[in-house]
Specification:
With 672 residues, the protein is of the alpha+beta class. Helices cover 40% and strands 17% of the residues. Strand 10 (214-222) and strand 11 (225-229) form a beta hairpin.
Length: 672
């Protein structure tokens, strides 16, 4: 019997249908020589400190750093997880072959291998690697199964990432909580979340400490066109007024008129980050919401695998593109956009199809299945993906840029304008551009009158007072871009590609990192802006170790993790480097003899549901406090740093979430 294991029940049903397995059982589907079962995402996790030794149960500075000689895994403590694992274990123990059908990425590889290890599977294992869940993609995947050894480095990179996060997170969180948390608040430190928080805090401090400087700009209006002085800013109003008086009665003379033709290629296809950025700009969706929506579209077979970091397609996708266009033709609104390709061969551009730029998965595109039954937000996201795909086959936008130079005495002025000659791909988007794009369009595409070199006439000069502006606060869109490039804000696609290698976090985890910062009360949202709380600011100011909060250093670690995946760096060496770093961080903090402490952020409860839950939980909390008088009761009733709900005490352990039995998993052993 061949056992197939998928990451979700819905995916397992799709696979079972293609394989002809139709008999449903508790926890699996059987038929045609296959048994198709599933996980619920992670069934296993790395062991917690107290699983290694009782010495690590209580939080104590004297017992840091915690570095296990060998890391182990365990089942997540959940009844449903344990029940499903027993079914999987039984199937695998009797299997002749296992096919790993987990998500085709680093996390999917880790999830399924841990389950197979825990189940002590002994039979051969093959790997299904697909980029969409259509029947055609699943059939093709099963016709081209890979050996598990081909993905060993992918698993090693995922394993090292998990262990590295454990080493740094467990040790640094206990270290900073005990040293600076006033014994009242858990100070969560993470390999990616802390440098991300640092970027927000540093930007916020730049804004708060910004001192605006006054300057003046000289311009003049000639033939209803505004010309700006090329000399730039004027520091003194007095100097500006002198120039104004000097030129106001002299004629404006056109010295040069030049036009230059240019072209603009279609926007790149979406990777996950660029889709999250666009959805935040256009619809104010959070990164997490966008990920949920595109994941739903993937599972409904309308778009391809979403957790990708490339904007290119591999060359083997090109023959499938006419069929994808055919699926989009089932949407009436798209028919006019597809008309130029009717009965014609689709153009193939190296800016779209480049196998050298694709590793595990290609850019996010439609699958060719005509969508139906979408909610409003899913339809919005699908339309963004589909429009980008269609635009990729349109011609470049052709335009001319006109630059006009004029003089008043010895002072030079300039005006520029842009005229669209052939809109090309821009017809695909019509009026769907984001507000930022519209502002840019108005600025770049203004049409100038016809000027002739040598002409002259009267003009109206003006001296405008200006002030330098502080940097803008991060939004989720700009923060995602900053995470992608380790804090370097760039607009150029090619340069951004080069910096991606050193970005912090992975496309699939960045949304969760931002959500974690919200849950732990390190940041809040004011309209679209991300604002650090006093706790978040003080935590970053408290951390002296660059290795904990530097986006560039974290980006360097991310590069090594990618190199492990590519067989270019040794996983063991990376772990040894992390262990040395953790030891140095612990020793540095322990030597700190200052009396620094982090303030506790208490956010107002303006939600009636929150107030009701708090009121209902009071009797139980009071009873638990009475039963644990010897415990550290300062944590009781506080906000859980993981799920953002209450913290309750049961026995000698503090648990996150008021529904602690099925809570978020956060727990602290409390010493007497």
């Amino acid at each position: 019997m061949i056992v197939c294991i998928a990451e979700k029940p819905s995916v397992a049903r799709d696979i079972a249908k293609v394989l002809g397995a139709t008999n449903s059982h508790d926890g699996y589907i059987e038929g045609n020589g296959y048994q198709v079962t599933w996980t619920f995402g992670h069934l296993c996790t790395l062991k917690e400190p107290h699983d290694y030794t009782d010495m690590w149960k209580p939080w104590s500075l004297s017992r840091l750093p915690m570095i296990p000689t060998q890391f182990g895994i365990k089942l997540i403590d959940d009844g449903g997880v344990k029940k499903q694992f027993k079914i999987i274990e039984s199937l695998m123990q009797q299997a002749d072959e296992i096919i790993n059908c987990g998500d085709a990425g680093q996390e999917g590889e880790l999830i399924q291998r841990w389950v197979m290890q825990k189940a002590q599977a002994k039979c051969p294992v093959k790997r299904l690697w697909i980029s969409s869940l259509t029947e055609e993609a699943i059939r093709d995947g099963f016709a081209n199964l890979k050996g598990q050894d081909e993905y060993k480095s992918l698993y090693e990179a995922g394993l090292v990432r998990a262990i590295g996060d454990w080493l740094l997170g467990m040790n640094a969180t206990r270290l900073y909580t005990l040293k600076y948390g006033q014994n009242r608040q858990v100070l969560s430190i993470g390999r990616v979340q802390t440098p991300t928080l640092a970027m927000i805090v540093n930007r916020q401090l730049q804004i708060e400490n910004f001192v605006p400087e006054q300057y003046w700009v000289l311009s003049t209006i000639y033939r209803d066109t505004t010309f700006t002085a090329t000399s730039g800013k004027i520091d003194s109003q007095e100097d500006g007024q002198k120039i104004l008086e000097e030129i106001k009665n002299s004629p404006f003379v056109i010295k040069d008129v030049s036009s230059k033709k240019g072209s603009e290629a279609p926007p790149r296809l979406f990777d996950l980050t660029s889709l999250q950025v666009e959805c935040n700009k256009k619809y104010a969706f959070s990164a997490d919401k966008t990920l949920q929506l595109i994941q739903s579209l993937y599972e409904k077979k309308f778009t391809t695998y979403p957790r990708v970091d490339t904007t290119f397609l591999s060359d083997d996708i090109y023959p499938k593109c006419p069929q994808i266009m055919g699926g989009l033709a089932g949407i009436p609104d798209y028919l006019p956009l597809l008309e130029p390709f009717k009965n014609k061969k689709l153009p193939k551009s190296k800016k779209v199809f480049d196998s050298s730029k694709v590793t595990d998965h290609h850019a996010i595109i439609p699958t060719g299945v005509t969508p139906h039954g979408l909610n409003v937000d899913e339809e919005r996201v699908f339309n963004l993906v589909a429009h980008r795909f269609i635009a990729a086959f349109y011609s470049d936008c052709q335009f001319t840029t006109t630059t006009v130079l004029g003089n008043v005495d010895k002072y030079e002025f300039k005006a520029t304008g842009k005229v669209i000659l052939e809109p090309g791909w821009k017809v695909v988007f019509g009026n769907t551009s984001s507000q930022d794009d519209e502002e840019k369009k108005e600025d770049d595409e203004k049409t100038l009158p016809t000027f002739i070199k040598g002409e002259s006439g009267p003009h109206k000069p003006d001296l405008a007072e200006k002030w330098t502006q502080p940097p803008k606060p991060y939004t989720e869109a700009t923060l995602l871009r900053a995470m992608e490039t380790a804090g370097k804000m760039v607009d150029n696609d090619e340069l951004r590609d080069a910096l991606k290698e050193n970005g912090i976090g992975r496309p699939s985890t960045r949304a969760a990192i931002i959500e974690t910062l919200f849950k732990r009360r390190y940041i809040i949202k004011e309209k679209k802006n991300l604002v650090a709380t006093p706790t978040g600011i003080e935590l970053i100011q408290l951390i002296y170790e660059d290795s904990l909060k530097s986006a560039e250093l974290t980006g360097a670690w991310e590069k090594k993790l990618r190199e492990i995946e590519q067989h270019k760096y040794d996983a063991k060496q990376f772990l040894e480097e992390l262990k040395v770093m953790v030891l140095e961080i612990v020793n540095t903090v322990l030597r700190d003899n200052t009396n620094r402490r982090v303030a506790i952020t208490e956010l107002p409860e303006n939600n009636k549901k929150q107030k009701r839950e708090k009121k209902e939980s009071k009797p139980r909390k009071k009873k638990e406090e009475e039963q644990n008088l010897s415990a550290d009761d300062s944590i009781i009733g506080k906000v859980c740093p993981v799920c953002g709900k209450g913290v309750v005490v049961k026995g000698k352990t503090a648990y996150g979430c008021s529904e602690w039995k099925a809570g978020c998993g956060f727990r602290i052993p409390i010493s007497e």
